Amino acid sequence: MAPDFFDRPAAEVARALLGCLVRSDCSGERTAGRIVETEAYTGPEDEACHAAERIGRTKRNAPLFGPPGTAYIHRNYGIHWLLNVVTGPKGFPAGVLLRAAEPIEGLTVMRRRRGRDELTNGPARLAQALGVGPDLQAHRLDRPPLSLHRGDPVPDEETEVTTRIGISRAADRPLRFYDRRSRWISRR
Description:
By secondary structure, this protein is of the alpha+beta class. The chain has three helices and nine strands, in the order H-E-E-E-E-E-H-H-E-E-E-E. Strands 1, 2, 3, 4, 5, 6, 7, 8 and 9 form a nine-stranded antiparallel β-sheet that branches. The model has no long low-confidence stretch (mean pLDDT 94).
């Protein structure tokens, strides 16, 4: 998917990513999934965003200010890597967290990386199953080894919009999107 797909508000991109494919050729092994859950982080006015106004630009969140369609990888609780897609114009820190995907390719590789059958139903599990780590920081997501591709869009009547989960600030904003038909979402 070309960078211009991502050059719009994070909430629009979060909704549009449902049904798209995320493909990884990390470590020379192909894995892929159909995106079924996302969360938008809309910029400095969003208290849950890593570049909220109270935080500003730091070394840690600098990739979030990058061009649209690039990866922002961050460590959650000092343990797990999470994959985000930078959205909006360059210099405006907004993005979409990929929360869950339906595994469609490379399930054996995903199981080996995860060490269990819960493969991609959560942002940390998804990143681990795809082999995503800090080496992909600021990577353009229109090329290998990690790329996003158009898929079959999720119809509006099958899309659920809820408040974000797993955060303490601005948790009441309806910026979580998921395919209600999927058994792979992180949590209902």
